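Email to the structure team, subject: NADP-dependent oxidoreductase domain-containing protein model.

Hi all, the expression group asked for a predicted structure before they design truncation constructs. Nothing fancy, just the tokens so they can compare against earlier work. One-line instruction: predict NADP-dependent oxidoreductase domain-containing protein, return tokens.
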Amino acid sequence: MEFSEIGFGCGDVGGLMVRGEPADQVRAVARAMELGINYFDTASRYGGGRSETNLGRVLKELSADVFVGTKYSLGEADPSDLKAGVIESVEASLKRLGREQVDLIQLHDRISSQT
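Reply from the structure team: attached below.
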């Protein structure tokens, strides 16, 4: 399977996967898949994790075989142990998504001389 040329963003800007109605979320994701979109992008920060939770629920309901990317956030992680912060964030995302793995993980924080 190959990534679609465009993906479905599940962020705060449009708000559907954060604040939308469950039936609308299912319809939108199903329609995106009908149109050939098979990459869905979310993040732990979108709606305080609601985007991941909602996307996971919708994909399970649709029995969807798609690519999922998320972003980890270091938040209050101890700068001297970033590895533990990454692991904690990714494990929480996987739990919210209801998945054993994701296809792409990206850093969702700025990098400075402090990190």
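The domain at 8-107 is CATH 3.20.20.100 (TIM Barrel). The chain has one domain: 8-107. Ping us if the truncation boundaries need rechecking.
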